[in-house]
Design a protein that fits this description.
Length: about 70
């Protein structure tokens, strides 16, 4: 959050670091899939914010240039 404020950019999301994230992953059920939990809600909100930021960027800027790397 502080870095976004210092750089003057929108914070897209914050993911809580909780033991439940590890536990759900170990059970094979990622925490992100349950939007009724604080962790799942945080991931869902961040995904929405990222999609919105991409849509805004794409409406204001041209396509990203393809860069070819020749070895």
């Amino acid at each position: 959050r502080r870095l976004a404020e210092e750089m003057g950019i929108k914070l897209l999301g914050e993911i809580p670091i909780l033991e439940a994230v590890c536990q759900s992953g170990e059970k094979g059920v990622p925490a992100v899939t349950d939007t009724k939990t604080p962790v799942g809600e945080a991931f869902y909100t961040m995904a929405q914010n990222v999609a919105q930021a991409i849509a805004i960027r794409n409406s204001k800027s041209g396509p990203t240039k393809i860069v070819e790397i020749n070895h």
